[in-house]
Amino acid sequence: MRRKAWLFNMDKKKTFVEDIDRSIYDIRNEDRYSYKSDKGLTRDIIIEISKQKNEPKWMLDFRLKSLETYENTALPTWGPNLDDLDMDNIVTYVKPDTEMKGTWEEIPSEIKDTFVKLGIPKAEHEYLAGVGAQYDSEVVYHSIKEELVKQGVIYSDMESAIRDYEDIVKEYFMKLVPPNDHKFVALHGAVWSGGSFVYVPEGVEVDIPLQSYFRSNSPGAGQFEHTLIIVEKGAKLHFIEGCSAPKYSVTNLHAGCVELYVKEDATLRYSTIENWSRNMMNLNTKRAVVDKNGSIEWISGSFGSKVSMLYPMSILKGEGARSEFTSITFAGKGQILDTGTKVVHSAPYTSSTINTKSISKGGGQAIYRGSVTVTPNAHHSKSTISCESLMMDDISVSDTIPVLDIMNDEVEIGHEAKIGKISDDTIFYLMSRGISEEEAKAMIVRGFAEPIAKELPLEYAVEMNNLIKLELEGSIG
Q1: Is the pLDDT of residue 413 over 80?
Q2: In percent, how much of the chain has pLDDT > 70?
Q3: What angle do CA 6, 399, 424 make, to 5 degrees?
Q4: Per-residue model confidence (pLDDT) at position 170
Q5: What are the pLDDT digits (tens) for 373-410?
Q6: pTM over 0.85
Q7: Are 73 and 183 in contact (CB under 8 A)?
């Protein structure tokens, strides 16, 4: 069902909601690089990307096979319109004019200053056990605390992982998300570059989060990082991912891929704040497989991009496996954020919890598209789904599109969807206590988002609150 909300103040003048101030994320650096591929997607371009990376033959063969799959796969026939995406005008590989460094001081000043303004070095110093920073198509900085290395934890960029841990990478790489899954996964398989590899040995608990931050700078380019995380039996990890880009007048593309392997009794929390620019097409794919009594927790905030299609998926493969998905989406003027999650209960006594919130304004479209499947053998499984939407004006849209495919009678499934607007009575009450109209509305919005914010690490909760800070104009009476 499509829903629209009308928001008026007491004298019936429509309240105006300002857009998010994202000026800090719109920092533009000169488009400097040591290598840039031609526009478009050809066999020769793929071969040259692999050559630039000095990859093993099996990876080049994988890329070329993925290209063939891409060329023979149709665009999705559902979801947002993708007509603005013209691969003939997308640059698929931009190598920064620097090699990867082990200290921030070694990074070229222009790139370093961008990450400093985004708060990445400060966060590393205060909150994190390791950091990877990607600029356009390559990781330019990587670090991990020595005590984790001594415990056998591996945290590296994907290119280094292929060289140093080739057998592990080859066993897992794009096995959970194969190139024939959909067209943009096939594209990713052909042109992927950068990303993170994490391996946590059996029984090791990483108490302080690891973080990768992806910054796209080059106009008209694509970013295709690959993240591969393996958390062995009884191990524990919190991994944080941040993304941003400046705004350009041309289309940029993000088609990354995340593969998460959560083994028996292991726990993985995966937190993401995606804050792409309004010219970005965000067509990302994320998937986790969870073994017996394992747990995957997704914490997701989607604030940027012109179009997003993003549906993190949990495959609950082992008995007692658990999945929690908590997300917030903010769609402003000109944005179509089609997001949600997929869960497959394929073993007995599995459980999933889905809690999503969306805010739309200025004609933005916030769409929840979810799928929960319970297979015939997944008896005594449980799933709870809650979707809440807050619309700020009479031109914005919120859709909820749930699919429940239940193939077993011995299950507990609950689905709830709510739509709301800011109550004039609530605003009047707060103003009667000496609070301004603008701050009253901002308080309500912050309260709406608070259950998501409290699940994020401190520095990302602050960022999220800054992103959803609303400046409201208008008066009552």
Answers
A1: yes
A2: 87
A3: 25
A4: 97
A5: 999 999 999 999 999 988 877 888 888 999 999 999 99
A6: yes
A7: yes
Residue 283 resides in a domain: yes
Evaluate whether 388 touches 420 at the Cβ level (below 8 Å). yes
Whether 180 shows a pLDDT value over 70: the answer reads: yes
**Does the pLDDT at position 13 exceed 70?**
no
Contacts (Cβ under 8 Å, ≥6 apart) of 51: none
Residue 14 lies in a domain: no
**Sequence-distant (≥ 6) Cβ neighbours of residue 407 within 8 angstroms:** 373, 374, 375, 376, 378
pLDDT band at 7 (very low <50, low <70, confident <90, very high): very low
> For the chain, how many structural domains are there in total?
1
Residue 386 falls within a domain, yes or no? no
User: Domain limits at 46?
Assistant: 31-310
In terms of Cα–Cα distance, which of 120, 27, 214, 103 is closest to 459?
Answer: 120
Is residue 60, in this structure, part of any structural domain at all? yes
Answer for the pair 476, 9: CB distance below 8 angstroms, yes or no: yes
Residue 17 pLDDT exceeds 60:
no
Provide φ and ψ at 62, rounded to 5°: -65, -45
- In terms of residues, how long is the chain? 477
Residue 114 confidence class, pLDDT cut points 50, 70, 90: confident
Q: What is the pLDDT of residues 275-314, one digit of tens each?
A: 788 889 999 999 999 999 999 999 998 877 899 999 999 9
Q: Which of 261-275, 285-299, 345-359, 419-433 has the lowest mean pLDDT?
A: 419-433
User: How far is residue 414 CA from its own chain's centroid?
Assistant: 26
**Alpha carbon 87 to its chain's center:** 22
